């Protein structure tokens, strides 16, 4: 039985390259001392860069070569808290936002249908121009509430967003559709 490279399952062109030979023990023959020395010397980052991740406490900035290790750990915890703040939304939150967006779109349609059906019955109360303006504001109100809530609460926690969106679902119920529309007749 022969032992060697011919017994390998796959051989590739260039396998006979002498730089790939690691000897019988499987470790490199030469140059291992330089790799170990390079790994033990501290690496300095350029000014303005912050190291994050595993082993980042051993790295230092160019201007803070003599900085104590506590400063490096403070920078690491600050970087970790910044990444915790801006975590992406989960699948459940995205689905809930989609469902609530659909509810708000249906509310806008409900305001439009209810307002158009109410238009003939309430012409004696307000001028036609005033009624048209208020009708389109009512139609746009659910869409504006949804967009404004998402815009103004993007730095807040998820429960704050859902609380404001839930308040809008209750407050913006299309009453003309409920009272005069298909349900009220």
UniProtKB/TrEMBL annotation:
Superkingdom of this protein's organism: Bacteria
Transmembrane spans: 93-113, 133-152, 164-184
Low complexity bias (residue ranges): 60-81
Keywords: Membrane, Transmembrane, Transmembrane helix
Residues covered by region (Disordered): 1-85
Keyword Zinc on entry: no
Feature: compositional bias, Acidic residues: 9-18
Protein known as: DNA polymerase III subunit gamma/tau
The organism of origin for this protein: Microbacterium ureisolvens
């Amino acid at each position: 039985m022969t032992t060697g490279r011919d017994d390998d399952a796959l051989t590739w062109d260039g396998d006979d390259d002498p730089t790939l030979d690691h000897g019988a023990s499987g470790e490199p023959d030469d140059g291992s001392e330089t790799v170990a020395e390079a790994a033990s010397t501290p690496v300095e980052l350029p000014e303005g860069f912050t190291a994050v991740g595993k082993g980042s406490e051993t790295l230092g900035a160019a201007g803070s070569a003599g900085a104590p290790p506590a400063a490096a750990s403070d920078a690491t915890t600050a970087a970790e808290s910044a990444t915790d703040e801006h975590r992406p939304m989960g699948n459940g939150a995205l689905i809930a936002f989609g469902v609530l967006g659909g509810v708000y779109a249906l509310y806008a349609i409900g305001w439009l249908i209810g307002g158009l059906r109410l238009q003939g019955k309430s012409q004696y109360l307000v001028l036609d121009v005033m009624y048209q303006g208020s009708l389109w504001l009512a139609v746009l109100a659910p869409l504006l509430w949804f967009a404004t809530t998402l815009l103004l609460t993007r730095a807040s926690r998820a429960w704050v967003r859902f609380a404001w969106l839930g308040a809008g679902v209750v407050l913006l119920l299309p009453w003309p559709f409920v009272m005069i529309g298909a349900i009220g007749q």
